[in-house]
Amino acid sequence: MTVALDQAARDLLFREAHTAHTFTDEPVTDEQMREVYEMVKFAPTAFNQSPLRVTLVRSAEARARLVQHMSEGNRPKTGTAPLTAILSVDLEFHERLPELLPHAPQLKDTFFAEAETREAHGTFNATLQAGYFILGVRAAGLAAGPMSGFDRDAVDKEFFGDGKQKSLLVVNIGRPGEDAYRPRSPRLPYQDVCTTL
Predict the structure, then answer these.
(1) 131-156 b/e (C-beta count within 10 Å ≥ 16 → b)
(2) Residue 32: enclosing H or E segment and its boundaries?
(3) Structural contact between residues 109 and 181, judged by C-beta atoms closer than 8 angstroms
(4) 66, 78, 147, 151: which one has the fewest Cβ atoms less than 10 Å from its Cβ?
């Protein structure tokens, strides 16, 4: 076997990891989330644009604001998770490019001058970062419950009223609770997915 990760790490990150649907009331600290970020900030993005933004929803007031915009089946788990993250794309990520891409600062005003281009590229790259974020949560020994079932326009208006961010995903985070996991569904075999030319 040529995989560098040991069996325990592979299980933690991939093979035994599931989407969690219930959580204990054990808190998820800011320190834990900072550690997650310090791992996942190295996700690859085109031109190092790093457009993902993470809004951590912890307070009862903020949680109530979010829960009302979740799909009905996602409301109970979002209401009881110790921490929920709204993952969004910063539509003005280009403003930070001179800092993040110092050898080509002109891209801010050339390649990314148009809002439509920024949204397309930003959404793709922030989604890539979101995958890393979920792996980072797992690497921290926490469970993640990513969800796309919510009213994006309403969440954007509620949390990003200035229109500078667009939500992509909502992720509940914490220690898995009772009956947290459903049975794992089948996955496609290698030969149905991978082609060698």
Answers:
(1) ebbbbbbbbbebbbbbbeebeeeebb
(2) helix 30-40
(3) no
(4) 151
Question: Is 150 strand, coil or helix?
Answer: strand
Place of tokens 């990520």: 93
Q: What is the pLDDT of residue 77?
A: 95
What is the DSSP secondary structure assignment for residue 109, as one 8-state letter? T
Q: Are strands 143-147 and 52-57 parallel, antiparallel or unpaired?
A: unpaired
Q: In what order do the strands lie in the sheet with 52-57?
A: 52-57, 83-90, 165-174, 143-147
Identify the pLDDT of residue 176. Answer: 94
Residue in 85, 90, 194, 71 with CA at minimum distance from that of residue 140? 85
Residue ranges of the chain whose pLDDT lies below 70? 1
Give the Cα separation of 65 and 155 in Å (integer).
9
